[in-house]
Design a protein that fits this description.
Elements (H helix, E strand, L loop, with lengths): L19 H4 L25 H27 L4 H4 L26 H12 L3 H9 L3 H10 L8 H14 L3 H22 L5 E2 L6 H16 L10 H12 L3 H9 L3 H10 L8 H14 L3 H17 L8 E2 L2 H5 L1
Parallel strand pairs: 1-2
Helix pairs in contact: 4-7, 5-6, 5-7, 5-8, 9-13, 11-12
Length: 329
């Protein structure tokens, strides 16, 4: 017999565990004596196709597991979500109406549950937002401030609310462990960065740009009900980014004080603008006001923000930029 487990499978660098077929032939390990007439690496006896197929399947599974682990490490997600739904938490004041599923209704008490969790665990909104639904402190602060009814909320908001509800259904000990892991990760990142803070306030715009923007916003609020906002605004956003050759991250920051992930989600769902969806309507109104600025003024804002990003280019890309107004909140 050939101890095939010692030979690497082509295309796979992971160490291969012994196949069940190898262990079923007895407890005594097979010994291979190299033959002088054979080229190094060749075997004296033919390898069965079944054994080769078993090793290839095992290599494929290990590669898939490695890719999943890399994805989890990048997104700071809990691996438990891949294997089975989160169990129902015993720490909630009252049980939820249904088990977790893709169609689970979000309880209207989700906002109070989040506040209670922040107080119980003694964690910041930034930590909870990252581990619960992989978003920023600014978005969580906005969600808690507006407290929209989940029954009439937009689809993009429901995705975030459902993610928070699912996370809160994890056992309390499991959530605390995730919080601790996130704290340690943040501390390690801060140590690697040196004096640079994890949350930094972006530089304010020049007086002339800021004044013009404020004046436009005031006019926009007066015309909010008659503002030309329809489904075509999503195409306008993409055309503007293409014209100005700016990234989604830069446009989202200067046009709506949001993150690149928020803008990706907005353009993905392309929900029909309606004043009933208050959060969606206000955000699109902010973008509409920005797009209503003269083109040279928009380009000046892009250039200024791009220079500010390049000025802080020595910082790691995972620094979270939060507007000053949200930090005060």
């Amino acid at each position: 017999h050939v101890n095939f487990a010692q030979q690497p499978v082509p295309g796979n660098t992971a160490e291969q565990p012994p196949s069940p077929a190898q262990l079923s032939h007895g407890s005594q390990p097979s010994v291979r004596t190299p033959l002088p007439n054979l080229h190094p690496g060749l075997v004296s006896t033919p390898i069965s196709p079944q054994l080769v197929n078993q090793q290839l399947v095992m290599a494929q599974l290990l590669n898939q597991q490695y890719a999943v682990n890399r994805l989890l490490a990048q997104q700071s997600l809990n691996q438990q979500y891949l294997n089975h739904p989160p169990p129902v938490s015993r720490s909630m004041n009252k049980p939820l109406e249904q088990q977790v599923s893709t169609n689970t209704e979000v309880s209207s008490e989700i906002y109070q549950w989040v506040r209670d969790e922040l107080k119980r665990a003694g964690i910041s909104q930034a930590v909870f937002a990252r581990v619960a639904f992989n978003r920023t402190q600014g978005l969580l602060s906005e969600i808690l401030r507006k407290e929209e009814d989940p029954k009439t909320a937009s689809q993009s908001l429901l995705v975030n609310l459902r993610a928070m509800q699912n996370f809160l259904q994890l056992p309390e000990a499991e959530r605390d462990r995730i919080y601790q892991d996130e704290r340690e990760r943040s501390l390690n990142a801060a140590s690697a960065m040196g004096p640079a803070p994890l949350i930094s306030t972006p530089p304010s715009r020049p007086p002339q740009v800021k004044t013009a923007t404020i004046a436009t916003e005031r006019n926009g609020k007066q015309e909010n009900n008659t503002m030309n906002i329809n489904a075509s605004i999503y195409d306008e956003i993409q055309q503007e980014m293409k014209r100005a050759k700016v990234s989604q991250a830069l446009f989202a920051k200067v046009a709506a004080t949001k993150s690149q992930g928020w803008l990706c989600e907005l353009l993905r769902w392309k929900e029909d603008p309606s004043p009933e969806n208050r959060t969606l309507w206000e955000n699109l109104s902010m973008i509409r006001r920005f797009l209503s600025l003269p083109q040279p003024e928009r380009d000046a804002i892009y250039e200024q923000e791009s220079n500010a990003v390049h000025h802080h280019g020595d910082r790691p890309p995972h620094i979270i930029h939060v507007p000053a107004e949200q930090i005060q909140q």
